[in-house]
Amino acid sequence: MNYRDEYEQVVDLKDLLFHILYRWRSVLVVAILVCALMAGYAVLSNDRNSAERIPTVQTEVAEGEEPPEEPKTMSPVKYAVIGFVAGIFVMVFLYGMAYVLSDRLRGERELGERYGYLLLGAFPRSGKRRLLGVIDRMLVRAEGVSEGIEADEVYRIVATNIVNLAGDCRNVLVTGTVDADRLEEFTEVVASQVESVELVMGTNMNMTASTLEALAACDAVILVEEKNRSLRAKIQKEQESIAALNKPVVGYVLL
User: Model pTM?
Assistant: First the structure.
């Protein structure tokens, strides 16, 4: 295993960990439910055993016979702990399998490590207010991704990087597998801040012939993808089309 393969493996494991940690609410809810079910099962079993033992106690034991054994009681606390741990294990396993089997784009650095593209900018996670949101913010800081940046500032960063990295390219195709409306909005905002480079929007080139025509006519390409939504297989097809025409890629943006 060379250094590049080892680094990609570390990044994948880190992304897998945070993929699970960001879903801590659902993991906790399921764990609490299983915990309550297991504790309730122990209590009901103890009550049933006690009800069955009362007639036996009231019956006289014949001379020479041994009294019936006391039924074993189940500890609700013990079963609650077992249920809590089992609930966490099951959810972690399910989310882990979903991550491994999924073909969706994950970390911010994935395209850079896979194809050598430069990250022009990444929009932070949605700022929805949620219960115990401080934990989510701690996870974002621990992951080391874009956080605490306003969308307007991200647009400015992207525009500045385009100007700095475009070089002699004056006609740049902005394309990707994201929705056409989001791609159009992004292109319009960035184009208004970039005067020296003409940005031409092209929807998914895997499905649109006009984008392939624009690809042949452009000087360079900017890819716009969406983390946890864009599929690696479709991005690979884009890369193959770009490489076939020997077009440089200025960089990529993650929405």
Answer: 0.73
